[in-house]
Amino acid sequence: MSIIIFSAVRFAPGDPAVTRLGMEATKEALAQERKDMGLDKPIPIQYFIWVNKVFRGDFGVSSAYAAEHPVGSLVLEKFKRTIPLTITALLLGVILAIPLGIIAGLKPFSWTDNFVSAISLFGIAAPSFWVGLMLILFFAIRLDWLPTSGYGPIGSGFKVSHFVLPSIALGIQLMGAITRYMRSGMLDVMSSDYIRTAHAKGLPYRTVVIRHAMKNALLSVVTVIALDFGALLGGSLVTETVFRWPGVGLMLVEAIQARDYSIVQLIVMAISFVYVIVNLLADIAYGYLDPRIRYE
Amino acid sequence: MNETKSDNLTINLKRKPTSLWRNIFRSFIRNRTAVFGVFIILLFTLCAIFAPLITVDINPDNNRPAYEEMDFDSPKLPPSLTHLAGTDDRGRDSFTRIVYGGRVSLQVGILAMLISTFIGVTAGLAAGYYGKWIDSLIMRIIDAILAFPSLLLAILMVAILGPSLRNAMLAIGIGFIPSFARVTRANVLSIREKEYVESAKAIGANSWRIMWLSIFPNTLSPIIVQISLGMSYAILIEASLSFLGLGIQPPTPSWGYMLTTGRELIEYCWWLTVFPGLAIFLTVLAWNFIGDGLREAMDPRQIRR
């Protein structure tokens, strides 16, 4: 119960932003709609009016696509291609980062730790689109194992081989940040009293590390993953351009170039919405994972 | 162990007490990666400032700047001694363009950080010092900005304002206001209760004076760390923007846009994607090193290596 109330409060600050954003984008392209949306009304009312409109599927009219294609379904179609990409990248990043962070955190300042830190720094500092380009250069051109770009072979639908490189490029970026936090989380946890107790009562090292330390170190990582999800979404915009992946990112870039503001507006709102929701879920997960935390 | 301790003690007794900033500087230069970061940034900055001296100079025949100098006789050349990073499809020297591209990167980073530091710190000071409705108002605005992933916010602003260097700097700068405001506010909240602030109030200093002379100097160290980490993100975002064609417009070279060209020619000219990206990578890495080094040097709780 307390969690839900907190969530609602926590969620609120994001909403006026989404609304305001909608207004700004509209001001440029659709001055009339601005009036219709009633800017003179208080923000909560404005927000509900806007939400109401969105739920009725009214996203405005695209200038680039014909009127019979509603903007909403066009964007939704693209999201169906972007979401698998980001989820795979997220899983890849988490699956790589957690073991790496653990082994680095268990032996701080050893050569394993230095090696892991080097990898994670690479992930943080190398822009995901450049990593993508390097992957294309090596795996697609030098070795000719995987296709350079696109969603699938021309004429046919989706093919898994087209999926590999973009998700790796994105996953590496995320892996860097998560590894870092996992490592410092482990460092904190391993020096705590309950770990000493666990060792003292004669539990095997493995059990102490996995059951006691990892679980607690993961706590701090959950929030970080949610925050980095924003970077992941941003990165996917650029990475899609690199791989010509026909998802939301490529659509956004094309829409900007075509000055198609209703699409730009909708995509930006949708991505921000996903971002806020993910952070909300992280807060809920945080309370669930750590019973000590109670939202009042 | 005991001996060294007493040695230090005697030395310290003979000498004047060291200042906080000197201590920070000492522990910073002891950090090898941080010094390496400073070295790279200095190198790149000097290259950017003295770009005309280390690259091919302006062609006297047509007065074009060096980075625009096309040579259609030598397009798409791989790296060699005359063209350190090869040439692109129009025969422009890639090394020259990378060096000039560094100017853009540096400019965007510095100006974006100036914008966000100035606005963010002012907002954070006001929010933390006055509290009440001013605090809630400022923090709600900050939360609103935070609701967007920073790259997305930058893309959106540039999309609305139109792509240019100035708008890119503005967009990136605004995106980083929240982190400065939050860091400053959190510190002000604790400093506000300190005795020296109270004494400043007691002698009748006005709010403005207390904020900037009593509180602000004591929030400096987290802000400085934030600036160097912010530089790395600003450079990354600028590169992403210009890669998407939303940053500075050609013919002025920027690392991001060079990668766009490289993407088109990736099957023929590997050097056009490797080197500009390496420049971005090294700069971002260096700022990260500096930021981490500063944080370690300034945070007394950090474990010494």
Number of strands of chain B: 0
Largest sheet of chain B: none
List unreliable stretches of 5+ residues of chain A. Answer: 1-44, 60-64
Secondary structure tally, helices of chain A: 12
Could you state the order of secondary-structure elements of chain A as H and E? HHHHHHHHHHHH
| Structural shape of chain A | globular
The counted number of beta strands of chain A is 0
- The topology string of helices and strands of chain B comes to HHHHHHHHHHHHH
- Helical segment count of chain B: 13
Overall average pLDDT of chain A: 69
Helix content of chain B: over 70%
Oligomer: heterodimer
How large a portion of the residues of chain A is in β-strands, by DSSP E?
under 5%
SSE arrangement:
The complex is a heterodimer of chains A (296) and B (305).
Chain A: H1 2-11, H2 14-29, H3 31-37, H4 43-55, H5 71-106, H6 111-125, H7 128-142, H8 161-190, H9 193-200, H10 205-243, H11 248-257, H12 261-289
Chain B: H1 2-14, H2 20-29, H3 32-49, H4 51-54, H5 94-130, H6 132-146, H7 150-161, H8 165-175, H9 177-191, H10 195-202, H11 207-243, H12 255-264, H13 271-298
